[in-house]
Amino acid sequence: MSNQPGSSTAAETDEPEAVEPSAGEASTDETVATGRPEFAPGALVLALLSIGWLAAMLWSTREAIHSTAAGVTAISLSAYALPGVITAALVTGATVALLATNRLGRATLRFLAAVGTGLLVGLVAAVAINLTYADNATTNTIAGTAAAAAIIGGAMAGARQARVVGAITLATLTAQIFVVLFSRARDPLSDLFGAGETQQSVLDAAKWVSRTESLLAGLLAGLAAYLYLTWSRRRAERRDGVASPLRWPTYLVAGAGAGLLLLLTEVIIRIGGRGLLDLAAALSEADEVAQTALGTSRVDNGIWVLFVGALTTLIVFGRTLGPRPVDDDEDEPAA
After folding, report:
1. 39 — alpha (psi -120 to 50), left (phi > 0) or beta?
2. How far is CA 142 from CA 61, 68, 75, 264, in A?
3. For burial by CB atoms within 10 Å, which of 87, 105, 292, 325 has the most?
4. DSSP letter at 320?
5. Is residue 145 situated within a structural domain?
6. What's the confidence (pLDDT) of residue 24?
7. Where is this region: Disordered (predicted)?
């Protein structure tokens, strides 16, 4: 029946009735509106793993330095071990700060508490280094640089995207542990890549071994970041009944995070540990060449881990996406 001016249907409005949002939709809208920082599951496990890794790096560095009889060799070993200690301090500051601020809702309070926690971790690490290492300028450099790295890591944990920070720390720990385990395969791989009696063949083989290590480390870092983000989203759904969806830029940043932290480690070393690196390079011409080569290798490794990790995470995330739904109206031809 058509709506005539005198009919009762003419008085009815053509606007659709308002539909109240469901509980899940209301919860999602409320979460977005409040902008509360995310909750990072597994923060306790990440903190314990990173603390153990930092303690292991400090202990191995101390044993290597104290096992040398000559002070010159101790300086070279300190410069060689400094990147591993700084990366471990950076990750530990971030994970402990995540654990301490996971329940805080206000963004400003969370950031301040995260920085304070990173400062506390840095002070503890610096005191431990000064008490267990020899009392000299080299020890002070390692302690001060490690403390600065822990503070920076704590500040990083104050970000709203706590799940991304958790994924980055897990990816970095995975890559660092793999590098240590991979050291046992360096000699067999060098022979496989053609290392012979000439110096050029040894250098070429070392480059291929380093690239293989970086490629595999980036692959594992990307997988670790993806698995953590996927697991954290499922935990959030079980815990709150709803979880904000994670888009591809989130996975991209998390996958590239391990490489970014390695490059950040290099920046911290070249600023805070410049004195130790210069001292090690001034020992001889061979040491100067070695320090330059090590610095270049660390930067290349960070770039490789960054891009391979990001690409791995995006590929795995893309394979989980289903086909885009097609509306029936789009298939019908226009009248």
Report:
1. beta
2. 10, 18, 11, 16
3. 87
4. T
5. yes
6. 39
7. 1-31
| Total domains, the chain | 1
d(CA 148, CA 92): 12
Give the whole-angstrom CA distance, residue 299 versus residue 262.
8
List the domain range (segments joined by +) for residue 221: 37-319
DSSP 8-state assignment for residue 193 = T
Tens-digit pLDDT profile for residues 144-196 = 999 999 999 999 998 888 899 999 999 999 999 999 899 888 888 888 887 77
Low-confidence ranges of the chain (pLDDT < 70): 1-37, 67-72, 239-245, 322-335
Q: Which helix (H) or strand (E) holds 88?
A: helix 71-101
Our separate counts of H helices and E strands in the chain read: 12, 0
Long-range contacts of 267-273, Cβ-Cβ distance < 8 Å, separation of 24 or more: 268/86, 268/90, 268/145, 268/148, 268/149, 268/152, 269/82, 269/83, 269/86, 269/145, 270/295, 272/141, 272/144, 272/145, 272/148, 272/149, 273/79, 273/82, 273/86, 273/141, 273/142, 273/145
What are the start-end ranges of the H helices in 133-247?
137-157, 162-182, 186-192, 199-240
Of the candidates 164, 180, 177, 183, which has an alpha carbon nearest to the alpha carbon of residue 260?
164
Q: Are 35 and 41 in contact (CB under 8 A)?
A: no
| 71-95 pLDDT, tens digit each | 557 778 888 888 999 999 999 999 9
pTM over 0.90: no
Q: What is d(CA 27, CA 78) in angstroms, rounded to the nearest whole number? A: 53
Beta carbons of 126 and 147 less than 8 angstroms apart: yes
Are 118 and 152 in contact by the 8 Å Cβ rule? The answer is: yes
Is residue 4 situated within a structural domain?
Answer: no
- The span from the CA of 231 to the CA of 191, in Å, is 40
- Degrees to nearest 5, angle at CA 45 with 40 and 48: 125
Token pair for residue 95? Answer: 């994970």
Tell me whether residue 242 is in a domain: yes
